[in-house]
Write a structure and sequence with these properties.
112 residues; 3 helices; globular; four-stranded mixed β-sheet; alpha+beta
Length: 112
């Protein structure tokens, strides 16, 4: 199992959020920007207003695992930032729902 490449710096997130293309699922929204590398880099952000720290970290783990399990099927060369929708009811979010959203988003990114 290889380690995921992640976006860490604020300027990396801002670049993707400002210049990237928007994709949405039921619970997750994403912005993707080509990085011209042979690997994807991901960033995950959950707003403080959505939930307290324990739930935010749980949601990040769900997104990270859903992405990790499905990345080998899709195109490489993107910086992707995943966000939880503000309108999402976080108490009903399950791993299957997150994985379904991630698959939908990654397929849309691959079709560009």
């Amino acid at each position: 199992m290889s380690k995921l490449e992640v976006l860490k710096k604020n300027y990396e997130f801002r670049a993707v959020l400002s210049r990237g293309k928007y994709y949405a699922g039921k619970y997750i929204e994403a912005f993707a920007l080509k990085n011209f590398l042979k690997k994807n880099k991901i960033g995950i952000a959950v707003n403080k207003k959505i939930a307290k720290a324990v739930k935010r970290n749980y949601l990040k783990r769900l997104i990270r695992e859903g992405y990790r399990q499905n990345i080998e099927n899709f195109d490489l060369g993107y910086n992707i930032v995943f966000l939880i929708k503000k309108s999402a009811n976080i108490n009903e979010i399950s791993f299957q729902a997150v994985e379904k959203d991630i698959l939908k988003i990654l397929k849309e990114i691959g079709q560009e």
